[in-house]
Automatic annotation (TrEMBL):
Gene3D superfamilies: Winged helix-like DNA-binding domain superfamily/Winged helix DNA-binding domain. This is Transcriptional regulator PadR-like family protein. InterPro entries: Metal_resp_DNA-bind_regulator, Tscrpt_reg_PadR_N, WH-like_DNA-bd_sf, WH_DNA-bd_sf. It comes from Halorubrum xinjiangense. It comes from the Archaea. SUPFAM superfamilies: Winged helix' DNA-binding domain (SSF46785). Residues 24-88 form the Transcription regulator PadR N-terminal domain.
């Protein structure tokens, strides 16, 4: 697996993934994308170049774990889409973070404001 991670169990949780892989899933939660579009989104987030040698092995790992589906757009371009299991992993990660962040009504209001 890329990013020095090992998954020992059948189902994959966010805790089994690297932050980079979790970020890929979050990007794909918006809509299906081809590899270079994912790369651009990651580069905008990180503020630095993401090389192909890092991106594509991680995408392949996510496909292998059933979190992302890979399909061919044309002979040179693959599209990546979040699976239902991938959706559940993203949702579980959001829930985990919110459970820890929302400790009082002020923080709950901050989260509500983000959603508006």
């Amino acid at each position: 697996m890329s990013e020095a991670q090992t998954v020992t169990d059948e189902s994959t949780a966010a805790s089994d993934l690297t932050a980079f892989q979790q970020n890929i899933l979050s990007i794909l939660a918006e809509e299906p994308m081809y590899g270079l579009a994912i790369k651009r989104e990651l580069e905008a987030y990180y503020g630095s170049e993401v090389n192909h040698g890092r991106l594509y092995p991680n995408l392949d790992d996510l496909v292998d774990h059933g979190l992302v589906e890979k399909s061919e757009l044309d002979k040179r371009t693959n599209q990546y889409e979040l699976t239902d299991e991938g959706h559940d992993v993203v949702l579980g990660q959001i829930e985990w973070v919110l459970d820890r962040f929302v400790t009082d009504e002020t923080r709950a209001d901050e989260v509500r404001a983000l959603l508006e």
